[in-house]
Amino acid sequence: xxxxxxxxxxxxxxxxxxxxxxxxxxxxxxxxxxxxxxxxxxxxxxxxxxxxxxxxxxxxxxxxxxxxxxxxxxxxxxxxxxxxxxxxxxxxxxxxxxxxxxxxxxxxxxxxxxxxxxxxxxxxxxxxxxxxxxxxxxxxxxxxxxxxxxxxxxxxxxxxxxxxxxxxxxxxxxxxxxxxxxxxxxxxxxxxxxxxxxxxxxxxxxxxxxxxxxxxxxxxxxxxxxxxxxxxxxxxxxxxxxxxxxxxxxxxxxxxxxxxxxxxxxxxxxxxxxxxxxxxxxxxxxxxxxxxxxxxxxxxxxxxxxxxxxxxxxxxxxxxxxxxxxxxxxxxxxxxxxxxxxxxxxxxxxxxxxxxxxxxxxxxxxxxxxxxxxxxxxxxxxxxxxxxxxxxxxxxxxxxxxxxxxxxxxxxxxxxxxxxxxxxxxxxxxxxxxxxxxxxxxxxxxxxxxxxxxxxxxxxxxxxxxxxxxxxxxxxxxxxxxxxxxxxxxxxxxxxxxxxxxxxxxxxxxxxxxxxxxxxxxxxxxxxxxxxxxxxxxxxxxxxxxxxxxxxxxxxxxxxxxxxxxxxxxxxxxxxxxxxxxxxxxxxxxxxxxxxxxxxxxxxxxxxxxxxxxxxxxxxxxxxxxxxxxxxxxxxxxxxxxxxxxxxxxxxxxxxxxxxxxxxxxxxxxxxxxxxxxxxxxxxxxxxxxxxxxxxxxxxxxxxxxxxxxxxxxxxxxxxxxxxxxxxxxxxxxxxxxxxxxxxxxxxxxxxxxxxxxxxxxxxxxxxxxxxxxxxxxxxxxxxxxxxxxxxxxxxxxxxxxxxxxxxxxxxxxxxxxxxxxxxxxxxxxxxxxxxxxxxxxxxxxxxxxxxxxxxxxxxxxxxxxxxxxxxxxxxxxxxxxxxxxxxxxxxxxxxxxxxxxxxxxxxxxxxxxxxxxxxxxxxxxxxxxxxxxxxxxxxxxxx
Length: 944
What we know:
Elements: H1 45-58, H2 65-88, E1 124-126, E2 135-137, H3 138-149, E3 153-156, H4 163-173, H5 184-207, H6 222-235, E4 240-245, H7 250-256, H8 262-269, E5 291-297, E6 300-306, H9 316-330, E7 342-349, H10 350-355, H11 357-363, E8 377-382, H12 391-394, E9 411-415, H13 419-436, E10 440-445, H14 463-471, H15 475-486, H16 491-512, H17 536-540, H18 549-560, H19 570-585, H20 591-604, E11 608-613, E12 628-629, E13 636-637, E14 648-652, H21 658-670, E15 674-679, H22 690-697, H23 700-704, E16 711-715, H24 730-735, E17 743-745, H25 750-762, E18 769-773, E19 799-800, E20 813-817, H26 821-832, E21 837-842, E22 844-846, H27 850-858, E23 865-873, H28 879-892, E24 901-905, H29 916-931, H30 935-942
Parallel strand pairs: 4-6, 4-7, 7-8, 8-10, 9-10, 11-14, 11-15, 15-16, 16-18, 17-18, 20-21, 20-23, 23-24
Antiparallel strand pairs: 1-2, 3-9, 5-6, 12-13, 17-22, 19-21
Helix pairs in contact: 1-2, 2-3, 5-6, 5-15, 5-16, 6-13, 8-16, 9-21, 18-19, 18-20, 20-25, 21-22, 26-29, 27-28, 29-30
């Protein structure tokens, strides 16, 4: 291409850039998908020649093929330059308020890299409608692209595969006329929110010197940005927003976004309780607490809740998503084109977003049936530091947000010193989410004016960064100066805003001295009608959970009737034949059938049931078959979905324990009218979710007054399958038991399992329920129940006395146990012909069934020995927990025996052996020890 300015075809003069697509016609663009959409045509030289030639002909000019070829070549290179800015323009964006990040202009963003130099920069080049222009110059094109992609916002979106999503974002960013424009009122509102955020942090720092608050200082632009989510979200159909965030800025969000009264927060800073004194519980530090409120924008009311969270960063993420999913479900806001009314917003730290695997587990939910929420807005407070760790030591990728590319979420990097740009990003995020139902990430680059907490000295580890921060003006100063220059405000307006807000804080500070919490916000809304148990005895009391014979028979037909159009697996056919025999004969009901009856009866009574886990549809051990799969089409048929009144959901979950368990906890948090169950593939796999168990399930009610009825199903039992496939770590759950916080059961009877599921929903309160579920007992001939055990006034039995016909006065040895080992003991005892030994199973370990156990022991007047038998090693299992409880029951029964003795495996670092022969010997030894038998005889008896 020549160096002088010239037309690309004879008689077609260059007349400067077009203000708009005046050239547009019905036959354009060539593909019908948009002007060179995705540049697929523009980068094809043949198509480009066609396009250039057509452009000349529209002017009525003769076409010179040589000039057309040269112009087409220039256009292809220009399009490559355009595409490079779309992909990599963010690398040259002005993002760091401190100007410490080294961000040199990449070579491929220069015209020279693409073959343009000198006067080439001012020659006309055809770009086919991109940037809103048909013709432009490379110089002007680069100016526009740098303004679009290299300003205070850097957009990453070309990793997205969906054309419509990319086009939407291009239309928002690309073009000669694309600027961030707010009205005068809007600019003043943004500045006012920044002032409130800054002055609030200053006020806390002055009144509570040295007290931890994890201030937002340096990131105050987030406050007006979050308000824009409420405002524009409400306009687009959002009626409920659920927030999750960690410490940084949380108190500011509580006060200035959520509307928690300042006096309440000041009361908590002074050591006051967030709840009435008679409520009890441990409470938590103020920057872990949540709240809920309603805010109105433009006449639209939006309910908001901030979920309480522990110090474990990002642990709250799946809880928020599960809570949102539940709310969407009972709002009937699930499905294609829905998910409009309830919005999840997760606020992250940069180090945590990059470093915590739970972030990816939650991103992975974004498009999975049963777990998607129609898109989550992720807001990263990017302080460019994690406690004392600089980014280069915290991650291997350029940005903390890079993990989000895995789910093709668009990422908006934005300079936190420009509150208009940050607010624009949030406005765009809610529009994108409501339109496409997908996650989007805002990465706000800012800084942390003080240390990790207000007592920390950050210059120990980042002296240069903190030299720059000390010199850096606050956001309100930078933004107000800009508005003064624009004539939007004057200095007096700014000072008035500061003074009036500080006066308000002083009034609230004075009022905090007399504040007393008089309302505990935990049994409202969907929880209305439920309550905390009046006393521990109430929580132990059973309810009648039997059902009518009519309902029982109706459920039997539902569970065994195969539609004529469904071709099921032949093995499943045999399973269903066996089930029909159970219902016809009224005997032999196994675990899976009892479970289905429990689910189905709750559905018939109007409750919903949600079960998820890695193999929950079929069941890890091929026992459940909740979904029947057509062998020709793979169409699913779920019998329990055809029970009227309730909603049944069963999902094979992603291969995640931490994320999925947190999600189900959040679901149960929002909906006490649903029986929500999470099933581990094997019980020990709950290890991967230990944070959720410790910080939420076991302690959430005590810390945050948040009741929860989640059920954990944890396969547990020693069958020689090795360490991870034996133990559900029962001891860990029992160690967490206190204050009536959870329920722990190790059930051996199908009917008892049926009743504990129903009891969970029929009582007037909710407590998490941990069930050690069986493996071999799923098909064990002794683990069967009769029809009558499910009916009428039957209920859950906390202890099971021996079924052997042994008179109480003859009993000299009492063997107490829990779980599968009971059947091994019964078989060995009966095989040895012992007539003075009885076996009592503890079906519920916590709350400990001390009263019924003491009554049962009290009838054994000639008792000489009490044994606790367990399969687990001595340092595992229930022994350390039950020992003192059994002693207390013996004392209450006034028994001559004072202490139980232990029979089980010896202490071990690994919960089980992986060698079948060793397992068999250990099992024989512990059974023999419990019953006083010969080990050799027991080994012989156990041989097939």
